[in-house]
Amino acid sequence: MRTIMVINAKGGSGKSTIATNLASYYASEGAKVLLVDYDKQESSLDWLRARSRARPVINGVAAHSETFRAPRSADFVIMDAPAAVHGSQLTQFVRKAETFVVPVLPSPIDMRAAAGFIKELKDTGPVAGKQAKVGVIANRARGYTNIFLSLDDFLTGLRTVPYLTALRESSNYIKAAERGLGVFEFAPSATAVDREEWKPLINWLASKKSH
Ligand SMILES: Nc1ncnc2c1ncn2[C@@H]1O[C@H](COP(=O)(O)OP(=O)(O)OP(=O)(O)O)[C@@H](O)[C@H]1O
Ligand SMILES: [Mg+2]
Q1: For 104-131, how does the pLDDT look when each residue is reduced to its tens digit (9 = 90+)?
Q2: Strand pairing partners for 62?
Q3: Which one of 18, 25, 182, 207 has the fewest beta carbons within 10 angstroms of its own beta carbon?
């Protein structure tokens, strides 16, 4: 069983978008997926409610209000963390998964906040002790804008945390969110760029480097 949490203390960085797209990807590959929503907003569970029964099944848990034990049969447990998780609460969250994906937006406020958050995450017991692995990704990238290049430099410069990929800003993510789908469930022709951008993240998650 793989346990993967998407986390960043900064609100709106794309945690739920990445978590739901990962869940959809693995389910589409035939895996048994549990989507665990730790956020009271329940964005991931709302996404699941919008999902057609005809699509590959993903089970959901409202983990902010119920304790749960992932069934042994689950291949992937994808966890969506809430915003503003710091200190002892962060330590609690870091115990729940073996792999952490941190999305960061191209904005000065988000980059500053991410610098602090990534440092805090690296200093928590399981990450510092290397039992848990962290990877960062850029989200809502807009080509060669100056602010994206700054984000790219910032994430490249982290060194102690792998910078896995940059996901572009795309209406595909909005359409997917509306319909309870992931970009991998759309026609390949409409999502060729997105699929390429996801590959390094998917490959890292499949490799020993991430767990
Ligand atoms: N790559 C993208 N392209 C276009 N829109 C995006 C992309 N990533 C996220 N969004 C949009 O940005 C908004 C915030 O994304 P999301 O809800 O995934 O962030 P979050 O980190 O889960 O937020 P919160 O901290 O409130 O839980 C949403 O409206 C989402 O559809
Ligand atoms: Mg969210």
Answers
A1: 999 999 999 999 999 999 999 999 999 9
A2: 37
A3: 207
